[in-house]
Amino acid sequence: MRILLVKTSSLGDVIHNLPVVSDLRHSFPDAQIDWCVEESFADIPRLHPAVQDVIPVAVRRWRKHLTRWATWREIGELRHCLGKAPYDFILDTQGLLKSALIARQAHGKHCGYAAEAAREPLAARFYDNTFVIPRNVHAVERNRWLAAAAFDYPVDLPLDYGIASPDIDLPWLAVGRYAVLLTATSRDDKLWEESSWVELGRALTSHGLLPVFPSGSTTERQRAERIAAAVTGAIVAPPLTLRELAALIGRSSLAIGVDTGLVHLAAALRVPSIALYITTDPALTGVHGTGFIRNLGLPGRPPQSSEVIAVAEQALR
């Protein structure tokens, strides 16, 4: 059996889809499982040993350069790649018009959410089989329930993201136990106060954990440097690839972050994880896993530093 999964973005959504691969591997040990995903997140499916081929798309980049010949050449190459050999099933767990159109480039039986369950109801018109999956369950379980309905296997399989920290050398990190503090996110209204990060960092050092601050953009790095400068011994990580971030997070003793995909990666890697919510509700998209997992805060009610420190101490115990 050949199966194509379509879940292109964003980072957290891609991570939430990993248990589908584990469920499929458990139910169909001999199946070939491929995954179509945005190029910037392609390293996430590659972490799962049951994913055979990762097929990258670049919708985000293509949208900015639709007048370029190179863009249309890449789109043509994607259509050729997806259509060159038939799949038995194509499962779109994203439920967007763009993901449905991408899925349609592959030949086989297309499965996805019914119109009343899809994020964009129009997407359901492009599926051969559709399924009504409740909206009021966590995104991880929605993905898994959709796959279980499409492939007719039990929904009560143990939760398993199926990934491990990659074996990558991080020569700049010559320390013992450390905590990864994920201060950056896609929206400014999701940020936690810098003074609270400083209090948390100092508390962690008193427990023998060195705070490590990854960052991406120049603005994120400047923010991380300001916080780290106020915490003795703290490290601002150099620019890292997604695989290097997985290695950094996977070897840590604790990960604490705002509403960002990387804190979901920590949960998937079974690292004790604490997610901080400032303006978004964690009920349906909070960190979700089988280890020490905590979601703190609600829209308009950000967690206090004392609360986060107390929960971090629980995790360390």
3D structure, described in words:
- This protein is α/β, with parallel strands linked by helices and 317 residues long.
- The chain has 2 domains: 2-151, 3-Layer(aba) Sandwich (Rossmann fold), CATH 3.40.50; 178-316, Rossmann fold (3-Layer(aba) Sandwich).
- The protein has 13 helices and 12 strands.
- It has helices at 11-16, 18-27, 43-46, 59-64, 69-83, 97-103, 139-151, 194-206, 218-229, 242-250, 261-268, 282-285, 305-316; strands at residues 2-6, 32-38, 51-57, 89-92, 109-113, 129-131, 178-182, 210-213, 235-236, 254-258, 273-276, 293-296.
- The strands form 2 sheets. The chain has a 6-stranded parallel β-sheet, with helices on both faces.
- The N and C termini lie far apart (45 Å).
- The mean pLDDT is 96.
SSE topology sketch:
Blueprint lengths: L1 E5 L4 H6 L1 H10 L4 E7 L4 H4 L4 E7 L1 H6 L4 H15 L5 E4 L4 H7 L5 E5 L15 E3 L7 H13 L26 E5 L11 H13 L3 E4 L4 H12 L5 E2 L5 H9 L3 E5 L2 H8 L4 E4 L5 H4 L7 E4 L8 H12 L1
Parallel strand pairs: 1-2, 1-4, 2-3, 4-5, 5-6, 7-8, 7-10, 8-9, 10-11, 11-12
Helix pairs in contact: 2-7, 8-9, 8-13
- Helical element count? 13
Radius of gyration: 20 Å
Q: What would CATH call the architecture of the largest domain?
A: 3-Layer(aba) Sandwich
Low-confidence stretches: none
Described by strand count, sense and barrel closure, the largest sheet is: 6 strands, parallel
Number of separate structural domains: 2
Q: Superfamily at the CATH H level of the largest domain?
A: Glycogen Phosphorylase B
